[in-house]
Amino acid sequence: MKWDHIIRNGHIVTSQESYQADLYIKNGIIAAISPSTEPLPGEAAEVTDAVGKYVLPGLMDIHVHSRDPGATYKEDFYHSTQAAAAGGITTVFEMPNTNPPINNVENFHKQAANLGEKAHVDFGIWAICLGHLNLEDLLPLHEAGVIGFKFFWGYAVHSKTFQLMYNYKEGMEDVIPPFKDGDVLDIFREAAKTGQILAIHAESNDIIQHLTKKVEASGRRDYEALLEGRPNLAEIVTVQTGIAFAKETGARLHILHVSTGEAVDLIKQAQAEGYPITAETCPHYLFLDNEDFHTIGPAMKVYPPVKYKKDQERLWKGIEEGVISVVCSDHAPHTEEEKDGDLWSIPAGMCGVETLAPLLLNAVHEGKLTLQKVVSVLSEQPAKLFGIYPQKGSLQVGTDADITVVDMEKPFTIKRDNLHSKSKVTAYDGWSGTGTPIQTIVRGKTVMKEGEIVGGPAGRLVTPRSQPKNE
Ligand code: NCD
Ligand code: ZN
Ligand code: ZN
């Protein structure tokens, strides 16, 4: 058989262009792209008729917490990558706040083996920065092939397991308090030596502790009170310090899950000055605001918290301007029971990997962004940022045949019980829209078709070093 798979008559969409063509796959690689009017000779094992459909470079979710290993009662990589495949995602980057965390080379290799057995899509692995506790591990982790470095700025962690403390209060036992700015500066210096992305959760613990105490004393338990304890200022202060540290050290700073308009302005300014600082945001900051808590409830609790309408508007503009170049889910599942309770004591986070692409595709119909921009923020820019382009994030001859086929006219309704994740906690239960990934292809192999998961786990580790040398 000359070809493994031909996708005929689809609209190929990249961030730069959109045109009708046939795409030919052989041995997991895009072997040819040719005008539909001039089919290439040779038989194919599989032919997909994509007439009227859009053929996108495989979409990526660079921010996924699958809790594996350590809290697989909440989620595991088998389920989260099925959810990814179902949602049109071909590569995920797994976050390092597992138990054990990905804080050294040994744990990185163990994690690569663990995830490799369960992965329905390709995956990269983040390394965690634990201040002075693992500074000397950062360079070896870089050499071992991590996708980037993550620092949970503002979080306290458990002293033995290093698990995040969601509702930390000063004086708690068995806790490493949030690192001080001096420690963080050391992280920036060390990460800068690797030349890899240093991604930060950006919320100031000092501000949160101080303000939360006051709000809690008032006895208020509502969402507005939560926001008073973790206000825009908590993000602003940390983004500001992060930018200053990046300027000082040369670290390639990436601001995770930006939730405030003010942060967008600060990042825009730093970019205009020529610093290689990048940012992402997530669907919950783009589609929700504080008012939605009345209808959604505790499922919506996430850190940083969802802010106000004016922030949402500035975030969309930030995407349009290119200040925010990545959209990702921050898939952070907890069980139903864990999320059901007092707003101050439940953990932060919700599912998202499966709903990321549909929500953005529907936003195309709403005029919020173009389909080419979707390709940019969900595929091309993430791949470029993390040094895996054009192997991932492109539709070019000779690169991985990672492809998401999309039906822009197909309606969807998000139903919690239909989610593929273990946890069903979502802010979008009952939401409907139009624009659905109908086929997910990872290195030539179909892993989802018409909503059904196809085949077992065959995902592979992606490392920046797996790039061809000439790229
Ligand atoms: C994340 C988690 O639970 O791992 N929770 C969240 O609210 N976003 C941690 C994080 O990304 O900050
Ligand atoms: Zn975070
Ligand atoms: Zn996260």
Account of the 3D structure:
- The chain is of the alpha/beta class and 471 residues long.
- It has two domains: 2-55 and 399-408 and 433-456, Urease, subunit C, domain 1, CATH 2.30.40.10; 58-385, Metal-dependent hydrolases (TIM Barrel), CATH 3.20.20.
- Helices cover 31% and strands 24% of the residues.
- The chain is built from 14 helices and 20 strands.
- The strands form three sheets. Strands 1, 2, 3, 4, 5, 17, 18, 19 and 20 form a nine-stranded mixed sheet that branches. The chain has an eight-stranded parallel sheet with strand order 6-7-8-9-13-14-15-16. Strands 11-10-12 form a three-stranded antiparallel sheet, with no helix packed on it.
- Residues 63, 65, 95, 330, 332 line the site of one zinc ion (ZN).
- The site of one zinc ion (ZN) has 4 residues, from loops.
- InterPro entries: Allantoinase, Amidohydro-rel, DHOase/Allantoinase_Hydrolase, Metal-dep_hydrolase_composite, Metal_Hydrolase.
- One of its GO terms (molecular function) is allantoinase activity.
- It comes from Brevibacillus ruminantium.
